[in-house]
């Protein structure tokens, strides 16, 4: 029988109030207090904190505080990734961000989802769908990346967009819901 954490990581229905899951969230809150409170530490120290808190961190990554996440260990950053101030990643399952991707301030990347069936919601069940963001993507400030979305290499996401569907490589999308802009390719 799977633990609630194993179910969570597999993208299955799980109970978020489980003690092991709550302990992991508490550890993430402790890490965020240290990361977000260290304005006077060196870039090297920030890099060490990123490697401590995230599942994988490539070289030369910058995540400007404040930053918020659920767990941290499900976040994988490629080399040269940049996240501006006030980004939020709800990482109940894996979030992959490819090399040289730039993410504007206030962007939210959400993997956490909830059952559509009200009886299941009433049981406190949740599930997650992974988000994958390719290489050399630019996501404008305030965009929302919804659960299960894949954004292809070299794509552009306009500021304030709500991305509910996959974005093909090299395509520029904008709006709510985000839609391709006619005649605009990023590559």
TrEMBL record:
Entries under SUPFAM superfamilies matching the protein: Trimeric LpxA-like enzymes
Q: Which GO terms describe its cellular component?
A: cytosol
- Please give the name of this protein: Nodulation protein L
Q: Which GO terms describe its molecular function?
A: acetyltransferase activity; O-acyltransferase activity
Q: Which organism is it from?
A: Pseudoduganella lutea
Keywords assigned by UniProt? Acyltransferase, Nodulation, Repeat, Transferase
What CDD domains does its record include? LbH_MAT_GAT (cd03357)
What is this protein for, i.e. what is its function?
Answer: Acetyltransferase implicated in the O-acetylation of Nod factors.
Question: Into which family does the record put it?
Answer: Belongs to the transferase hexapeptide repeat family.
The coiled-coil segments of this chain are none
Record domain Maltose/galactoside acetyltransferase: where: 5-59
Name one matching Pfam family.
Answer: Hexapep
- PROSITE patterns referenced in this protein's UniProt entry, alphabetically: HEXAPEP_TRANSFERASES
PANTHER family noted in UniProt: ACETYLTRANSFERASE C18B11.09C-RELATED (PTHR23416:SF23), SIALIC ACID SYNTHASE-RELATED (PTHR23416)
């Amino acid at each position: 029988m799977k633990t609630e954490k194993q179910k969570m990581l597999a993208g299955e229905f799980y109970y978020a109030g489980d003690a092991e899951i709550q302990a992991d969230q508490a550890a993430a809150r402790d890490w965020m207090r240290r990361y977000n409170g260290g304005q006077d530490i060196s870039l090297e120290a920030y890099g060490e904190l990123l490697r401590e808190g995230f599942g994988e961190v490539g070289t030369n990554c910058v995540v400007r505080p404040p930053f918020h996440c659920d767990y941290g260990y499900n976040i994988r950053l490629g080399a040269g990734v940049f996240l501006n101030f006030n980004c939020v990643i709800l990482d109940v399952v894996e979030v992959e961000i490819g090399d040289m991707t730039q993410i504007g301030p206030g962007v939210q990347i959400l993997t956490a989802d909830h059952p559509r069936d009200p009886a299941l919601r009433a049981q406190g069940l949740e599930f997650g769908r992974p988000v994958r963001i390719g290489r050399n993507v630019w996501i404008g400030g305030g965009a929302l990346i919804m659960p299960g979305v894949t954004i292809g290499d070299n794509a552009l996401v306009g500021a304030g967009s709500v991305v509910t569907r996959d974005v093909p490589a090299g395509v520029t999308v904008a709006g709510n819901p985000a839609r391709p802009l006619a005649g605009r390719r990023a590559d």
